[in-house]
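QA checklist item 7 of 12: single-chain prediction sanity check.
[x] sequence parsed
[x] length recorded as 508
[x] structure emitted
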Amino acid sequence: MLTFITRRLLAGIATLFVAIFLMYLLVDLAIDPLADLREYRGADKAARIAAREDMLNLDTNVVVRFFQWLGHAFQGDFGIAWRSGQDVGTMVSHAIGSTLQLVTAATVLSLILGVSVGIVSALRQYATFDYLIIFLSFLLYSLPSFWVAVLLKQWGAIGFNDFLADPALSIPVLIGIAALMGLLWVLAIGGSVTRRLQTFGLAFVATLGVMLYVQLTDWWSKPQLGPVLIAITGVGFAFALTALSAGLKNRRALYTALATVAIGVALYYPLQGFFDSVAPTHLMMFGLAIVAIGVGVLVGFLFRGPDWGVSARTGGITAFVVAAMIYVDRVMEVWPAYVNSNAINGRPIATFGDRTPNLGGNYWVQVLDQYTHLLLPTLTLILVAFAGYTRYSRSSMLEVMSQDYIRTARAKGLSERTVIMRHGFRNSLIPLATIVPIDVITLIGGAVVTERIFNRPGMGALFLNSLQEAEIEPVMAYLLITAALAIIANIVADLIYAALDPRIRVNA
């Protein structure tokens, strides 16, 4: 393993050096820092040009300038953007922070949704649900991201903000939404006529009940989860996760998940008091998330059993979900004050930027503001990435389910859940091990179109603005970071391959 990583790192460093050297030459040819002075008509034109050439060291050979820049970059000094006078390191840190917010949310959500829907579509091959997902994925995959972004601005921001002024849905609309959800669940689950009717009825009643609760409690104006909804959702998630990962017959795993939910609900009010008494930070929230996962794993370990690792994994995932719901509930608590503030003025869904100027407020208000600014660009990236992940996971699952070892597993008498989850699902993720890391690095390099439309100051915007301003230092810092991350992503993909498929040995 160590030999493999060392060998790949050395090869990556060599590749990085050659790529950055060539890019420096190309960028130097592409930009002209003297373009504005060439059109200058003043008597001191020659003096101005000479002064700028001296400031930017343009009289030095480009190869020498590259090695000078590279030497400073190795020392952590990326230079100064000569037009704005800003430190390039500071510019990059701000840009990559904004981009990471967008990339993290979009990648995680699109991956979970895309893989889940793709797997179900593969298992329901040639059914109506399968054809519907194929049509939807091809449709979304072919849509230009700028067009999706403009539509989301119009309907997801302007339209939804108008709706929030009088958030009322008529009974026919509520019934229509409930019926649509019931139909989708019927198409996804299938089965006999009796089972389809039962599925439709349960989905219809559940959806209609949730929608009526939202309407009658004025949830749109004062959104919250509260301990009751967290408990109900947590119990439902505990049963669903146990059924998928361990099977409901594994009582120890089920009891672990339920006990974890009970601990989370019991800590709801103490955590509210804790949040009121301290000054929260992102680092603190990350630490609490790690603690929550640790508690879930500990509960699974205490229940033990012949395969305590399954219980521990179930408890850890359940604990994370419950903790996330408590966190979201706390953020929702400041919604009324946020919406009614002078800076927001009743229109909370933002269409540009990554924060509201002059907003003020505590940590929770700032987090909510970041979420509202993330909503539309995240949805744009999710819709495009969802289509790709759905297609990849569907085709991979279909290929895996036709393999001999799947037929052998069924012939041994293993349950269909075990065949699908332990033998099919894990192996279907292998192709995604290459795609996902590269996609993440590509997005970290900047979702250029999305960032431009929503005016987010991310890596893509930094690259375009610096290129237009003929500032080579920010451009090269951008290229150095994205190229290095691309090399790391390929190494990570190889390691994930080895973790998913025991037949692959990284030291081979």
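[x] summary fact logged: The radius of gyration is 27 Å.
[ ] second reviewer sign-off
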